[in-house]
Amino acid sequence: MPEMDGYEVCLTLKGATDTNNIPIIFLTGRTSAEDEAHGRMIGAIDYITKPIDADLVLARIASHLAAIKMNDIREK
User: Fold this and answer.
1) Does residue 56 contact residue 48 with C-beta atoms inside 8 Å?
2) Structure pTM?
3) Could you say which residues of the chain have pLDDT below 70?
4) Where is the Response regulatory domain (predicted)?
């Protein structure tokens, strides 16, 4: 059993000033709507359930990176 689950890792990263801006995507076997809502509520930008489709993961990462880039451009 791991010392921390993904939710705890997310909370730890989001709670520290030097890591709170790291985008987090959950890749998980937990498939309930409640689990996804909890992951997003604590700071994940996405929640992908198993079985993992590599093309889907890459598309979501590309989408999030594009959104972050657009946000950075707007802030300048």
Assistant:
1) yes
2) 0.87
3) 1
4) 1-65
